[in-house]
Amino acid sequence: MTSVFIEQARGAREASLGLATATRAVKDKALHSMADSLMAHVQQILEANGRDVQRSREAGVASALIDRLSLDPSRVEGMAQGLRDLSGLPDPVGEVLHGWNLENGVHINKVRVPIGVVGIIYEARPNVTADAAGICLKSGNAALLRGSSSALDSNRAVIAALQHGLEAVGLDPRIVNLVEGGHDITDEMMKARGLVDVLIPRGGASLIDAVVRGSQVPVIETGAGNCHLFVDASADQDMAVDIIINAKTQRPSVCNALETLVIDASIARDFLPRMVDTFTELGVGVQGDSRAQALDARIGETPYDGWDEEFLSLDIRVAIVDDLDEAIGFIRSHSSGHSETIITNDVGNQNRFAAEVDAACVLVNASSRFVDGGMFGFGAEIGIATQKLHARGPMALPEMTTTKYVITGNGQIR
Fold first, then answer.
1. Residue 373 φ/ψ region, left for φ over 0, alpha for ψ in the -120 to 50 degree band, beta for the rest
2. Among 9, 37, 74, 160, who pairs with 195 as Cys (CB 3.0-4.6 Å)?
3. How many other CB atoms are found less than 10 A from the CB of residue 250?
4. Whole-model pTM?
């Protein structure tokens, strides 16, 4: 007997074939219709989200995860605006990346084409449902969206609204699908080679690791955000304070929030207590290494194995290093490859940091909160890829395509 998921995946495959040749005008019209439908169904979406949030609170879920789960009218409007923004971006499908002629007159074009059926496995955040659906549609792909059980009611309401928007412009609603069920369904997705073209896990390290290790379907790996910021000896310290506070506190539950502050020892005696004063005022808990603790008694001890994890909360770690070399070595040892920042007025140190730190995004004198598809001008994002294959950093429309070579001749043979 064919499972519900396999039937769903086959339907997505059929829908993807028609979508692959849809014009930009058709896809952009659909994006606006999906956005309008989200706003028309905002009350149903918020009521559904309220049920999810209530269940999570009763289950004692951490406040950082509650924040990721929660929707309000402005967040739903943001989801809708993300879809509208996508409509204003160039259509990647059909873009000729490179073209050339062989000596025998054969012409070769390298062209962007849709991947086909994209499976996305993600935790909590229902805004990802709209972002992923929109990016997949604009790039010509059908989407199989496997959200977490904690956001089930929210995702059902969002998907229903998106499918209503598709139907309103005459497109197949199977372009966007919510995959429901337990761990057995996730296992089915990971084994659906031939029906699902790529899987993208987005969430905590345990989820990503399970998909990367267990999938028979190709995986684009996103990563956790154990993000560091190094305050160089030459830094403008007032600017450093502003950037650190923004990167840590503006939204601490997201993957581009700052988790570890690294300070040059030559400025730490004055700068660190000032920073701890500010953290204390803002309710940020501070841990640190022995050198940091020696400079400020308010700093707690970081467990030996605690330097590699995300807090996703109003907590931060502090490490003191002797120079840029030690800072780069420390970050290399503990980075998740997401986003790493330097605050400096030394151009040489800036260039070394940018060249030698291995991460999807390196920032100079700017908050890591900018590492986001929307902030980059991509309209939205599927996630932040920390791998080193074709997609790295915020994944948007181009990353959701592959390429084919179109070879044209007039009778040439080899």
1. alpha
2. 9
3. 14
4. 0.87
